[in-house]
Fold each of these.
Amino acid sequence: MSKKGKKVRPEGTLGIITGAGMMGAILLAGLLIPWFGKYDANEISSDQLLSPGGTHYFGTDMLGRDVFTRVFDAVFVDIGTAFAGVLIPLTVGTIVGTLLGISRNRRVNSFIGSLIDGINAFPFLIFVIALVSFLGAGLSSIILALSLVNWARYARIARTRAVVVNQQGYVEAARTLGYKPTRILFRHIIPNVSSETRAYALSDFTIVIIAVAALSFLGLGVNPPQAEWGAMIKDGANIITLAWWTAVFPGLAICWAGISVAIFSEGLTKRIGEGSQQ
Amino acid sequence: MASSAINKGKPTEDILVEQRVPDKNRIALRRTLIGRFVRSLTVAFWVMFIAFSLLRFSPGDPIRTALGTDATEEQVIAMREKYGLDQPFFVQFYDYFTGFFGGNLGTSFFSEREVTEVLRMHLPVTLMIILLSMGAAVMISIPIALSVALSRRPAVTYFFRTSTSISLAIPGFFLALLGLLLFGTVFTWVPAAGYEGNFPSNLKYLWLPALVNCFSLVPILSRVLHSSLMDTLGEEFVETGVIRGVGKLKFYWSYMLRPSLAPTVVLVSYMVGIMIGGTVVMEMIFSLPGIGRELIDAVSTRDYAIVQGIVMIFGLIVVFTSFIGDLLGYLLDRRVTLS
């Protein structure tokens, strides 16, 4: 191959591929292993606290359940909850923030604006814990609590951005052409506002994955016997000196998921940054 | 940097003085400061209102939960009257609001403890962990950010950026557990249980939680400081400093760190919120008698008065510290305009 024929990869490609690959791998494992594995995730057996080995790759827990199966059985519970906990506030926050940014009603603007500031003032995890306690423990409460808290962060970003986008030439042009306000909003303004909120959502995803596990770790998440990383670490923490594998493997799974998102978003930021410089 | 090669020259004046905005902007400054203060008060009011509303939105009757299932109707009504829950919503809020300024945040539904008493007992431990974490994080971040900024190799920057974002993706409670396993069981550097409240002796309980908190603080802090340092490096006065041959320490402090500090200080104040969340988890793992453990206990017993009080205090702490941070950031660098 001549040097000319070699394609120059844009910067950040390595991060994007690695991150997406890591995420894809754990999702695939989460799909396949509980279905085709030797054990059932909630199957109680007399082989309690076996150390990792040939028959039980990650060992067994207090009730003799296979940790390997349980770790991958929890993939969709954890990542799915975190995904919903990012997608809902992203959507709501982007729309509310954009509407605030383009609205001319100063009273509504400052009223909802200070409400947003008020919600954002609370420490994220504390507020979510309090909300979950009022809503009752469980995954749907976690998603609802994450949405009630996080929409305000997205709304704040979207509002700032919408003010700028609203004054851009292409929006003015669309208005001059006489397009309907709803069309301008959804086709011209929101796509440009959401590029910013989506970038934030990606970095938020890592935080939310950890938060979901932390809530379960504090006893506010899933109901037993459902396998979930935070809850597994919580159970394993009490016997960590006796059987380290019951807590360490679910912990590594959280790290794997979080790091895959982090690397992906790092790569994406790099590529976008490069594109905007050109 | 070449500054160390020629460090004999002495600067005759502080060049940074020139960067400051002249006094004619004083009035505009006062106006923005007052505006920022008023906004903080508005936000503080919302914080109180939201924390107060939480209890009222909760499904089910907290009084019935507190009294148990076999409580008579008279008992429920009597207790509801005692806590003023039979009043209309806004009357209740007014009472709560005025009570706050009289140092009264209500009493627990279960243990009859006053919320202010709970806060006074347990808040110092939490604040101590936060203070230690912040101090350690600043100490660690400054040399990291400085050395990454000064080494102009792209590989170093890339490694720095990747490792910081990976470090952010590791959950603190998992790290704390590993730390406890390593330093508590293998090395026995951390006492397994118990706590002593006095200053030097409590450090042996608090150093590991603070260090674990640093794993989420240092990446954020050092990244902001790094990008702020990179901005500073592009300024002309840095070149002047190099040409003048300013001493190494003076160069690092006056020409690089000092002009770059403002965004970091503002960020540190904003990060108090993140740190409070991390500290709650640390208190649970290390069995420290802080406010976070009280919160989790109150959540599990559905002691809403305590939950409400703790959530509100944390919200107010964040509002207060971010105001102070903005102020400090401005004083450190007058070029910053207050948002």
Amino acid sequence: MSPDSLSRRSVLRSAAAVGLSTSLLTACVTGGRDSAETPASRGTKDANNPFGVENGRPLEVVAFKGGYGDDYVKNAEKLFNSRYARSTIDHKGLQKVGDTLRPRFVANTPPDVVDNTGDGRLDISTLVSSRQLTDLAELLDAPSWDDPTVKVRDTLLPGVVDDGSFGGTCLCLNYVYTAYGFWYSKSLFDQRGWAYPSTWDGMVSLSEEIKKAGISPWTYQGKYPEYVSEPLLTMAGKTGGPALLKAIDNLEPNAWRTEAMTNAAEAFAELAGKGFIMPGSEALSHTEAQAAWCQGKAAFIPCGSWLESEQKGITPDGFEMAMGVVPPRTSSDKIKATGLEASSSESFIVPAKGKNPAGGLELLRMLFSKGVAKSFAQSAGTLPSVAGSADGIRMSSALASVTAAVKAAGPDLVVYRHRIWYAALAKATDDAVGELINGRITAKEWADRIQKAADAIAKDSSVKKYTRQ
Amino acid sequence: MSRGLPGRVHRLRGGSAFVIVALLPAVVLHVVFVLSPYAQSFYLSLTDWNGLAGSASFVGLDNFAQLGSDGLFLDAVRNNLFLLLVMPVMTVAIGLILASTLKMGSKSRRGELFGSRLYRIVFFLPQVLSVSVIAVLWGSAYSPNSGLINGVLRGVGLDGLARSWLAEPRLALVAVMVVMVWSGAGFYLVLFTAALEGIPREIYEAALIDGANGWVTFWRITLPLLRENVQVAFVYLGMAALDGFALVQIMTVGPGGPDGATEVIGLSLYRAAFTYGKFGYASAMGVALFFGSLVFAVFALGGGRRTQTELA
């Protein structure tokens, strides 16, 4: 998001700004007609060229150039050029992907490959419902770059295909594998003789001990309550198992009022109620909260595995950052104790109306090859969604703990889809979580509020619905 | 003299040609970049366009009907109205008081308080800062543990008054409003100071001879003679109060929180368009806001005009 894009203008102007951005691109919406769909031509396919890329047809790539840079995309492009030497590649590395590409999607002249990532990205479910994306099944079933006997689909970590699927069709592939959990300083814990707990009860009693030692047991990124929504929903998901995940994602009546949900909410409300949370956390930005945690003012902080790279230069030497999974709250949890919330990000798409879809698919096949993924893991210090690509590289304690958690969890993942499908429901959840953890509403009120929001979305015919099998 | 008439006509023709040439680019730009987007927004507010599709279907007034049951949007309307009622009054009051203090507070020969130029520069300073810089500065000043405000309160022993300014629902909007007042007051101080220069000193001297004190002079002379400036200030500030997007977006919890406590219409609109992909619905918010601002502007200008004739 660009906070200053509307800056200090009068309200009339801010209304106009939206009007303006729309008008420049509504040539089609307010006047034109959809061009007849003629699939771009392809060359001959063979075992080495499964999509029929024409050597000589140019390829346009737009990559998000954020914290991880865009060198890994360029690596894949080098591979592409070595095989299709006569195709020129137009590469653009951008931060505001959405602003740049929105008019091109509306005008039906999108690039061939897009890394739709970052604050200014295009809403993926809107892209999907506007039929702007190529079905990636062809890519998933093609032979992988490294081993022609293995399909691309089988080289990916668990959940990656599901993350990119809408209504059973895979439309985007995410490059970075993100695990979520609670973070702590291993050196601090070793020094004090604390061990990361394996149950939630253990977590509560450890928090008690930490508090007695004069350290705040917890802090969180108060300005953005979604950092707490993630572990809260994970805890509930572990208790309720796949049936609950499905019910929540499918907007089933009363899914939020189930015991698994309200008890998880109570557990987090209790953290606040027992005074375990560092005072003032509720108003801290993610940078402030994470800095306080790095300074040893709080023992635990919830976050995804991007934390290490985000804290580069702030983390003191010898801190030994490590992540633990959300411990099970009950002994009868339906997902095993090592179950992990993991999802993938850095979404690569092949626009349906690009001029060279075969080239786009081929570039992705190369991008998801072991060699490119490995060099990405090395330079970015984070896990790519290609299985085994981080094996054998030198890992920091943070990346090692994440890799170990991913291995231990195996296929037992806690994955919700509703937050991507229904952005408005995610907003309602996060607002309610903020109120819950500040003691302004009870767990029951929390569940009622979100259920109401979920029911409203279920009833709203203007929102495209997805179902989870 | 004999050539006077044709000469005049000639000059007039040349003049109007010049006027047309000078205005044309501005008119064209205005039509293309201001009026046509408005027209398009009005049209889009009647559709379900998602911002990416090549087509949109007409949904009539559905989007407007939905506004009424959108809890967050209603929060936003409530907050903008609160800002509209309180912020301009506070800003104008502070600007006026400071301006007349600087101008009249001193009995010195030059009729100015010592160092008043410096004060003017200091107060005007926020005006040259970008709004995002202001938001970041105040965001850290409000920070509960390391922020300036709580630091000062704790430093003077008022620990009990230290708060999570932006995280408490009852304080957050006021905290945002304080920033608006702070960043606006300096501009109006300068505006009112300039206007005060236009009031003849003799009037004040006469009042002084008649035994009027500073307070009476302010109410009976300064304020009535500044009425037009104050009125313009109210219109500008009202527009700012109906906006507030940038400050809220950068400073607040959520943003717009906690739990809608600082939500403003601009933020709801932005979220609907760019996060939820509901450009049609967002345009409806924009159109509603447009009419809201229009009513306000007409009311503020029209209401003042009546009292002004009374004065003259």
